Amino acid sequence: MALDADNVRAALGGKILMAPKGSTAPADLVTPWDAAWVDLGYMSDDGVSMDYSTDVEDINAWQSLSPVRRILTSVDMTLGFTAIELKSKTITAYFPGSTISEVTPGTVYRLDIPAAPGPQEAAFGLEWVDGDIINRLVIPRGEITDRGTITLGRSSAVGLEMTVSAYASSAPEIATWLSNDPAWALAA
To answer: Which phi and psi angles does 69 have, rounded to 5°?
Structure first.
């Protein structure tokens, strides 16, 4: 297999989107995300981390020093990001079950954070570009399962660090990744 620097990619820009669970995501790379999908805005310059891991259980036999079989026991996929645009959608995503109301119309708002929030499943989209190459990842069923500390200081933006865990949906997939990357061609 030959080395080809033209197949090296960077995520030069992109966005994280969130929608109610059951929302329809674009099935191609040209259809715009519909109004159900809210762009979470600016992310920290660390970008987005995507993690995919599997666990296996070894089956050992008396007659063998190495496993005779391995069984897949779990699959885990997460997206990690830090939202630095503090708007109603990012704040209520960070604090599950919270609500924002107006105290004084148009000038003062109140965030009520519940003591015992319930599950907050949603659909998540990730889109990133590298020149003409577009990638879209859709998690039809996921949840923000981990949150980092909010640090308030004068030398950096206030960030809402979140980790999205993908769950299996009615289909066998936990996510779908679309790309127009020519390096993905089956003959490549």
So the answer is: -165, 155
Strands (E) located in 98-132? 99-104, 108-112, 122-130
pTM of the predicted protein model:
0.91
Q: What is the mean pLDDT of residues 134-148?
A: 97
Q: Is the pLDDT of residue 142 over 60?
A: yes
The neighbour count for residue 144, using CB atoms within 10 Å, is 20
CB 135 within 8 A of CB 47: no
| CA 51 to centroid of chain Cα atoms | 10
Q: What is the phi/psi pair of residue 151, to 5°?
A: -105, 130
Nearest residue to 167 (alpha-carbon basis) of 83, 104, 97, 74:
74
Q: What is the mean pLDDT of residues 12-30?
A: 96
